Structures are given as C-alpha cells and as structure tokens.
C-alpha cells in the first residue's frame, strides 16, 4: 500500500461512487492504478474503509425502498437503455479496459459485448419474473407465489473480466429490484467507475448501485460484514471465497461463489488436430491465461501426443506479445508484478517436479515490453496428474500436457480435481462425445471446442471447489437475488385449519 506522496502527485485521484457522487476514502491510504503493459500510472485510488461501506449500504437501502416499487417492466426499460449506452461506448470501454488490466483489444471488446448481451437479456426478464399459481387443498382458497428482492446485495468482482463478470451479477440483481454495493478489483477502478456512471446516465436512480474502491482487508471485509447487506456475490480466488463463505454463514447471509478452475481439454486419437491446436492456443493463452475457464491441462491420447506437441510449440512461437491496444497483439501482459512472480514461481515448481519445458518459461522485458509484466506462453510435457502444476490453479499462460491411453483414463484425470468449472473433448466419434458429456463432472462441457466462452442465456458455474452450487447468467441467476414469497387468499369466510380439518 502506497501513500499519496509516493503514489504520484500528478495522477488523478479515483474515489468511490456513492449516491451519485464521488466520495474520498477515510483511510487516508492510496494505491496506484498501473497500466501493466507500459508501467504508466493511470490514477491513485483513495481506499474506502468501513465508513464509506456503511454510507454506501445505507444509501443503497434508501434507494432500494423506491427501486423495489418501480414495476419490473419499467426497471427492464432502464436496463435496456443501459445496454444501448454500453453498445454506443463499446470501443471506449474496451480501450480503457485494455489500458487498465492488459487484455488485448479484441478480447476487451468481447468482454464489453458480454455486458451488452447480459443487460439486454435481463431487461426482458422484467416482463418474465414469473411466479406460479397452484390449487389449494381447501375450498374457496387461492395460492400463488412471487419473487421478492432481498434488499441490498454486495458484489465483489475480479479484474480479469471487469465488465462482463459484474454484469452477470448487476443485471439480475437490478431487474429483481435490489440495490447494490459493489467492490470491484483493485486493478480495475477506472473502468468500474465508468460503468456505474454510465448506468446512471442511462436512467438508473443514483444510489441503486454504489461503488466502493479498495482491497479486500480495508474494503471487502466491511462489505461482507455490514448488517444491511443480505447477499454476497463473489467471484475470485478459492481461498478468499471460502473465507467469505465462513463469515457469511456466521452472519446468516446468503453467499454465491464463483472461484477457481483447473480446466482440461481432452484430445483423442481421432481428433481434428488442426481444430484442437487452434482451440488450445486460444483457451490456454487468451487473456494471457488469466481466466477461470482457461485450459491449463491437456489430456492427450498417447497416439497423437508427439504430433500435437509439435503443432502447439509452432503455434505458441507465432503468438505476438505486445501492447494490448495494438491490433496485431495476440498476448498481452500479466495484470501486475505480484501475479507475474506467482506465474514464474509455478514454472520453477514444474521444472523441479521433473516436467519437460517445451516452450516459454521466462519473463520478457525488452524493447517496447521493457516496462510491462510480460511472460512467454509456456507449455510443459511429461507431466503426471499428481504434480502441483497439474493440480493447482496458476492463472497465467501455462499449460501442461498429460498423456493418456484411453477416454476412460482422461475422464478419470479430468474429474480428479479440486475444481470443476469447464472441460472439453476433441473427437470425431459421437459415442465418445456422448460418453464424455455424460461423465465429465464439470459445470460446463464443450465438444470440439475449447474451454472458454459463455452465453448469457445459459447458466454459468462449476462443481466442487469452483463454487457453491449457484449459477450466474440465464434465469438461474435470479435465484441468487430473490426470495420466494407464498401468498394465500382465503375467501371462504371461515377459519380453515388445513390439515387439521
């Protein structure tokens, strides 16, 4: 944590956004917002503490009282306008995202498009917040159910998809009638502030969404603990998610978790290797490997492992590292120095474990890359399933090849993981494809495609240590931000005692 003096006096100060206005942090602390490709100082973030979280929660609660009474179709119209405005500013937001967290520009555009799709989709749910009616067991009695908003929800989101992931939480929470206290990642304050200001410009009443800026200890913990915040929706590391889950349970709060992944692509001996190679390069090294859905394990049939390795090494060496704003760049920087050190540390672990390094395995600090956090895309082979690099989430541009003898062995290795987000198989045998779809125990299964990507009308989430059973996107996301209310209307004119009578 840096002080205001050492953070750079000329950089703009980034403050929390509460009730439609900027609010400085009361902690007196600042930290730098740095472009990971160039080292440019983009701003100094004023760290919000418990006082600002309390203000945000109370502001959200007051806004909630009116927002919940706004008819859901009218709320949908505002979400529709938000989607339109994001669409108009797609390029601006994408470029800001690339500068702030290092995602290459064409991927940043896709990140923004995900938010456009999500807000359009959830806008339609304003006319489809369906409950149901059912016959009563008693005469002259009517029974029905409705969805009710829970009140104020707390969102804690990561830096790797700084608009897409928040949209998966914001849009369903808002259409259901909730108000929000949102703590974005420390590495993406600028794009987060632009996003909430855009929402208010589109017609969202000030105070319905409030942004508090700061790290987990100073800012995230008060969000989790605040008594007015009834739901915590978290996307991030498994360690942090589990700690939040314990605290939320102690406080009697609902919590939804989207955490780590150690996703595997299986390549069978009958696979289209051209397609598999292209998909692996995208799945393993897109977003510089900094995705929860990144393919970090490659389970390759021994009959094609040598040929696939050659293709992958050739493909990796053609990937261009560079400034993410350059349209010719394939792989951008790692988000910050701490993560760069973590990734290289895992590469050293792989070497010590006896894995064979095929390509990569080093930082790049030369020429135009000298000031950034760049790491060469890395592939290990001769990896056994029990190695740390095959079991622990690295969250960087590192993939490991594990040879397998059969589909059954690949499925066993795929499922023998702490995580269970996404899996994939390449095969031209429909029987093998169907067997994999049945037996791979992940929340998402792809056939003849990589492990990345999501569509907003389908539920997103994983099994085991990846989450706690909730899903984001699609109508299933509404379950995280609503309560079911059952209403009975007895028009018999007498006391009916149900089962007693």
Précis, in short:
The protein has 501 residues and is α/β, with parallel strands linked by helices. It has helices at 4-7, 50-67, 72-88, 90-101, 105-124, 164-175, 189-201, 216-225, 238-251, 273-285, 305-318, 337-353, 388-391, 407-415, 430-439; strands at 13-14, 16-18, 21-23, 30-34, 41-46, 133-135, 141-149, 152-156, 179-183, 209-211, 229-235, 254-258, 263-267, 295-301, 356-359, 363-364, 374-375, 378-381, 398-404, 419-420, 422-426, 444-447, 463-464, 482-490.
Describe this structure as you would to a colleague:
- This protein has 501 residues and is an alpha/beta fold.
- It folds into 2 domains: 4-259 and 467-485, Aldehyde Dehydrogenase, Chain A, domain 1 (3-Layer(aba) Sandwich); 263-447, 3-Layer(aba) Sandwich (Aldehyde Dehydrogenase, Chain A, domain 2).
- Helix content is 37%, strand content 22%.
- The chain has 15 helices and 24 strands.
- The chain has helices spanning 4-7, 50-67, 72-88, 90-101, 105-124, 164-175, 189-201, 216-225, 238-251, 273-285, 305-318, 337-353, 388-391, 407-415, 430-439; strands spanning 13-14, 16-18, 21-23, 30-34, 41-46, 133-135, 141-149, 152-156, 179-183, 209-211, 229-235, 254-258, 263-267, 295-301, 356-359, 363-364, 374-375, 378-381, 398-404, 419-420, 422-426, 444-447, 463-464, 482-490.
- The strands form 7 sheets. The chain has a 7-stranded mixed β-sheet, sandwiched between helices. Strands 10-9-8-11-12 form a 5-stranded parallel β-sheet, sandwiched between helices. Strands 1-5-4 form a 3-stranded mixed β-sheet, with no helix packed on it.
- Strand 9, helix 7 and strand 10 form a beta-alpha-beta unit.
- Helix 3 crosses helix 7 (189-201) and helix 4 runs antiparallel to helix 7.
- The radius of gyration is 24 Å and the shape is globular.
- The chain starts with a helix and ends in an 11-residue tail after the last strand.
């Amino acid at each position: 944590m840096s002080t205001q003096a050492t953070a750079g006096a000329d950089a703009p100060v980034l403050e929390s956004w509460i009730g439609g206005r900027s609010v400085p942090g009361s902690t007196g602390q600042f930290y730098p917002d740095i472009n990971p490709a160039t080292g440019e100082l983009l701003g100094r973030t004023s760290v919000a503490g418990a006082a600002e979280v309390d203000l945000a929660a109370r502001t959200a609660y007051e806004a909630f009282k009116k927002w919940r009474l706004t008819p859901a179709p009218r709320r949908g119209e505002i979400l529709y306008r938000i989607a339109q405005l994001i669409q108009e500013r797609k390029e601006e937001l994408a470029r800001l995202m690339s500068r702030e967290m290092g995602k290459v520009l064409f991927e940043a555009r896709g990140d923004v498009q995900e938010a456009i799709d999500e807000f359009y989709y959830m806008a339609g749910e304003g006319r489809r917040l369906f409950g149901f009616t059912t016959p009563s067991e008693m005469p002259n009695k009517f029974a029905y159910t409705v969805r009710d908003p829970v009140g104020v929800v707390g969102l804690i989101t990561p830096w790797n998809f700084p608009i897409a992931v928040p949209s998966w939480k914001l849009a369903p929470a808002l259409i259901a009638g909730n108000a929000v206290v949102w703590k974005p990642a420390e590495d993406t304050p600028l794009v987060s502030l632009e996003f909430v200001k855009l929402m208010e410009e589109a017609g969202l009443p000030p105070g319905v969404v409030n942004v508090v800026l700061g790290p987990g200890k100073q800012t995230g913990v008060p969000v989790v603990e605040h008594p007015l915040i009834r739901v915590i929706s978290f996307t991030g590391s498994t360690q942090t998610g589990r700690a939040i889950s314990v605290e939320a349970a102690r406080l009697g709060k609902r919590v939804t978790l989207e955490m780590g992944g150690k996703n595997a692509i299986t390549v069978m001996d009958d696979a289209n290797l051209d397609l598999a190679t292209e998909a692996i390069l995208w799945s393993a090294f897109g977003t510089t490997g900094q995705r929860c859905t990144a393919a970090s394990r490659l389970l390759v049939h021994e009959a094609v492992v040598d040929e696939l390795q050659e293709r992958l090494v050739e493909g990796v060496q053609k990937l261009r590292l560079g400034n993410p704003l350059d349209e010719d760049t394939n792989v951008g920087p790692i988000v910050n120095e701490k993560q760069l050190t973590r990734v290289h540390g895992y590469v050293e672990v792989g070497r010590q474990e006896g894995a064979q390094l095929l390509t990569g395995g080093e930082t790049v600090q030369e020429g135009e890359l000298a000031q950034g956090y760049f790491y060469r895309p890395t592939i290990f082979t001769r990896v056994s399933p029990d190695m740390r690099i095959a079991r622990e989430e690295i969250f960087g541009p590192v993939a490991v090849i594990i040879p397998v003898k059969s589909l059954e062995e690949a499925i066993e290795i795929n499922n023998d993981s702490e995580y269970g987000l996404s899996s994939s198989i390449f095969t031209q045998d429909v029987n093998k494809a169907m067997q994999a779809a049945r037996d791979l125990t992940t929340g998402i299964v792809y056939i003849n495609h990589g492990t990345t990507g999501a569509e907003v009308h389908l539920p997103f989430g994983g099994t085991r240590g990846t989450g706690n059973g909730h899903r984001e996107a699609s109508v299933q996301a509404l379950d995280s931000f609503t309560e079911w209310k059952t209403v009975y209307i007895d028009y018999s004119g007498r006391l009916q005692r149900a089962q007693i009578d």
